[in-house]
Amino acid sequence: MDYKEKREKKLDSRKSMTDTTPLLDNTYQENNRNNNNNNFYYRFNSFPVSNSAVVEMTTSSVNSKQLRSVFLGVDVGTGSARAGLFNEDGKLLGSASSPIQIWKDGDCVEQSSTDIWLAICTAVKAACALGNVSKEEVKGLGFAATCSLVAVDSEGEPVTVSWSGDTRRNIIVWMDHRAVKQAERINASNSPVLQYCGGGVSPEMEPPKLLWVKENLQESWSMAFRWMDLSDWLTYKATGDDTRSLCTTVCKWTYLGHAHMQQINEKDSRDMEACGWDDGFWEEIGLGDLVDGHHAKIGRSVAFPGHALGLGLTLSAAKELGLMAGTPVGTALIDAHAGGVGVMESVPASDSESIVDEDAISRRMVLVCGTSTCHMAVSRPKLFIPGVWGPFWSAMVPEYWLTEGGQSATGALLDYIIENHVASPHLANRAASRRISIFDLLNEILESMKQDEGSPFVTALTNDIHILPDFHGNRSPIADPKSKGMISGLTLDASEKQLALLYLATVQGIAYGTRHIVEHCNANGHKIDTLLACGGLTKNRLFVQEHADIIGYPIILPRENESVLLGSAILGAVASKKYPTVREAMKAMNAAGQVVHPSKDVKVKKYHDAKYSIFRDLYEQQQKHRSLMTEALS
């Protein structure tokens, strides 16, 4: 039977999800009540299960010796799956990563859920081996992943979302911009839900991507039985429980999490019927079929991050991961949000031991700096900020409103600037021969140039080079996916020194973008005065110092570099009941490291204020140019 015939057979045989489909199969609920031998039976959410889904965990399988309490965090980024093991104080015991495949074709960026799961299993086993952690010691597990869209059929098999028809490619990656036109049409609807997305959806969110698939891949649209954020698919794969996270649904699907504000608090957490979908919105944008069956394809139940799902790991998932069946699994987070959970309470001891200030968390912003950068701030009141995503209720720290700014390309932009320069190969070889990063080598070149040219400070070297870093659009605070990157000050120079200047100007452009976001948030109700930063880019001392100097606030780095993994592990700790809430777990497991202060040199501030003014002007020039050309072509 060829693939097409197989897919047609699945379509014909697929069971529809009706309003009467039980969330939990009655037979297995009865087994749970009647079971008296200390075994646990797993029950699947939203569909009947077979005998092969039975999970067994007996007390005799645990060694009688005193075991540590270890919590496992899994993070699926754009290029790799990573696993990290932490003790109850948040100290890293071991970590490992495994690469994942990615397909790029113009605006289309795709991945495979099968490939990702295999990479996770590899990383988890390697982390346990490196950390000398037994499976019995792992008391809880949490997942985080990019906000990518996953399609599976009624049997949980991949459904292609690719023009190629390749069945492996069942994930539209977060950075995919194929749905720009669909996003524009959705935003033209002026639906009330859009005010909780900064005034409009981004093509990186799920509704535009879903609409694109419906309009362009009809067969895939008909076959898809579940549409899931990648984080939710991971917990579903691990536990069989289709409960979705308030993080993913609220931030990327227009779910109104505050519909639950009066129903429940985090300490009484349970999976909740999904009453926050705006059916009128889905119908108006042409996706009314997703409302069918109590929203079965996009989520019939939701829960706070860290809520324990089902009865933990299924037997099959546990075997593949090398862990114990029944290990508690927490409701997931998007990767950037896990970074926020892993770092937001990382304040120096002198601050945390002073008079308790419950509002202090609302004056902090977390920068999660990787391929892109996310800017996370929380508040008790809901704050509507034009061009900035949110406010999202309980999307990161339960029972707080989240404001989420972002830059779509930061680490990716630095890679692009460096790798596409003619001097890059030679520079990369020099760095490799010394076993340092190319960033470290560029930083050394800049210091040498400062001495040679008698510059008052390194940052002054870029007085003739100015960069608008919108090479992948502007996510915040302008919210213009059509914005383009701009470089002012190019010459015919192709030397390593010229590349170093471009690199420095790019770092500065990224930092000016963050300053723009911080200023915009504070102008609309926030009172941010402290930054915390995590992610791969924070290992670059120049990147962190430039942000501190340009924004004018101290930047706290966490004790543990792997903040996203720690945030994921915190979800497992909460699911295991080690800590009653995510906030309590954050306070116990977060810890501060180095604090980077802004320069006290008034000349540095004056310099950056001038460059920031030019930075803001570059976008205004681009708008003017765009308008002129549109008029010329009309």
TrEMBL record:
GO molecular function, one term: D-ribulokinase activity
Chain positions covered by the region annotation Disordered: 1-36
Residue ranges with Basic and acidic residues bias: 1-17
Residues forming coiled coils: none
Highest rank taxon of the organism: Eukaryota
GO biological process, one term: pentose metabolic process
Domain Carbohydrate kinase FGGY N-terminal: 71-342
Keyword Transferase attributed: yes
Biased composition range(s): Polar residues: 18-30
Pfam family, one: FGGY_N
InterPro entries per record: ATPase_NBD (IPR043129), FGGY_C (IPR018485), FGGY_N (IPR018484), FGGY_RbtK-like (IPR006003)
Keywords of the record: Kinase, Transferase
Domain called Carbohydrate kinase FGGY C-terminal: residue spans: 366-575
Any one annotated GO CC term: cytoplasm
Entries under NCBIfam families matching the protein: 5C_CHO_kinase
Family, similarity comment: Belongs to the FGGY kinase family.
Record protein name field: FGGY carbohydrate kinase domain-containing protein
Source species: Capsicum baccatum (Peruvian pepper)
